[in-house]
Amino acid sequence: MAAIGRQNQLEYFLQGSVGKDSVKALLERLKGLCDGASRQFATFLDHEIVYTLGNPSSNISLRARHSLDDSKAPWQLRYVGQSETDKSRSTLLRSCVEVSTSDNLTTFLKELGFRHESEFVLKGYYFVKGHMRITVSQVCRIGGVNEPQSAQPISDSYLVEISLMTTVQQDTLAEEIKGFSEHLKPLVHLEKIDHRKIQMT
After folding, report:
1. Structural element, H or E, at residue 197
2. Is the overall model pTM greater than 0.90, yes or no?
3. CA 16 to CA 162: how far, in whole Å?
4. Partner of 174 for a Cys bridge, out of 42, 63, 78, 91, CB 3.0 to 4.6 A?
5. How far apart are the first and last CA of the chain?
6. CA nearest to 192, candidates 168, 169, 174, 165
7. With the C-alpha atoms ordered 46, 47, 53, 56, is the resulting torsion angle positive or negative?
8. CB of 84 closer than 8 Å to CB of 69
């Protein structure tokens, strides 16, 4: 496997959800607030596969993602650390390593002993505001292993996420994200969602 580029970063982020009835209004508001406003929304369609290595109590999880819209785009290998839930910080914070790779990424991971755990398709819209990236997307389940063409939305709700990547911890960036999220109320309320608590329920 050839690695094309690598980024070791920290990611500040907030998440929330919006119903189908409100998503159009949210997209229009984001279109007015964000950079590069045009008549068309920028869209994405990504297939993501989660691989694990080790036992359930102490495994390593890696995410392999590629675009279904652009066959020439390289595969992305991503490692995401546990979110830090500092009560004094306005957002969650996690470490993130991203590598662009050649097309044989999934084969390479299997040869290393990684197990296929799950996969899904993300279909939605993205916006940029300064260094922030805002996505509004539906999570879609697929009918079988490596069959992204069979993707169907899990629900009518859309996942909304604001994130900002940096190489150095700067908690002022958390305030920037929080401030922007206030402009999206009452259409969507973005929060610090602790995914560890969700997994335990």
Report:
1. helix 195-200
2. no
3. 9
4. 91
5. 38
6. 174
7. positive
8. no
E strand or H helix that includes residue 134:
strand 132-141
Cite the DSSP H helix spans in 71-189: 105-111, 172-182
More confident residue, 96 or 38: 96
Helices and strands, number each (H, E), in the chain? 4, 9
CB environment 59-72: b (16+ within 10 A), e (fewer): eeebbbbbebeeee
Vertex 80, ends 77 and 84: CA angle to 5°? Answer: 170
134-149 residues labelled b (16+ CB within 10 A) or e (exposed): bbbbbbbebeeeeebe
DSSP collapsed to 3 states, 47-67: EEEEEEECCCCCCEEEEEEEE
Radius of gyration of the chain (CA): 17
Q: In the 8-state DSSP scheme, what is residue 143? A: S
What confidence tier does 39 reach under pLDDT thresholds 50, 70, 90? low
Whether the Cβ atoms of residue 23 and residue 136 lie closer than 8 Å to each other: yes
Let me know: does 121 contact 108? Beta carbons within 8 Å.
no
Per-residue tokens: 77? 């290998």
List pLDDT tens digits, range 66-82: 999 998 999 999 998 88
